[in-house]
Amino acid sequence: MKTKPRLKAPKSRLAHDRRKKNVVNRVIENPLIQRVSYDQYRDKVRDVYDGPKGALLATCSMLSLHIAFGDRLFRKRRFELNGMKRILDVGSGAGQIARHLLKYADRDARITCCDLSVEMLRRARSRLRSVRPKHTAADVTRLPFADNSFDCVTCGYVLEHLPDARSGLSELARVLVPGGRMLLITTEDNFGGAWTSRVWYCRTYNRQEVLDISRAVGLDVHRELWFSRMHKLLRAGGICLDLRKRV
Fold first, then answer.
1. Could you give the domains of the chain?
2. What is the pTM of this model?
């Protein structure tokens, strides 16, 4: 199994990305990720999700309709789970995506849920009420899995907690088999994303930046997904991609 050194926020890159954003978004977006080391920032994120905000995450996802829209992605097979036997859900949170996996994946699929916060994993176990998923505490930049361990990866709203998407995407690509599928959702650098950043101490990403980095680490874009036609029209809901690992 490959291991990766601890990361330090590439501040010059972050500063460049921040300058490209419009003035309103720059004012609203939370700057913490630029101001501290990666280890300090990771500890802050863990504390946030261990605490009251993390306890309310499932409720927030329901009220924002993210759970309902996520269900639609799988129910209408816009992201196909059929035939996927080893599935990794990264940043499982309160089990929002894991619940869809239990509902729509093959009955014999093995599902592994990982999250930085042990407390969030505990909440997910309680909420899912299923013995099927295996729960593992892990940092997305240092996953405790061998190369080519999974034929499907789901990663919802995790990359925004990294100073550089490459550190997470390259690790996700490492554990995915050639030809494997990935559902990636992350916060976009628009007005809604800026408010998400303010609340959850995360950053936002430019869509083209994520597309380019995905291809650079061997993840080809099968298609861009949207929760609904209205989301596509308004460019809302974040960056949602169906990725395939290059063979």
1. 29-245 (3.40.50.150)
2. 0.89
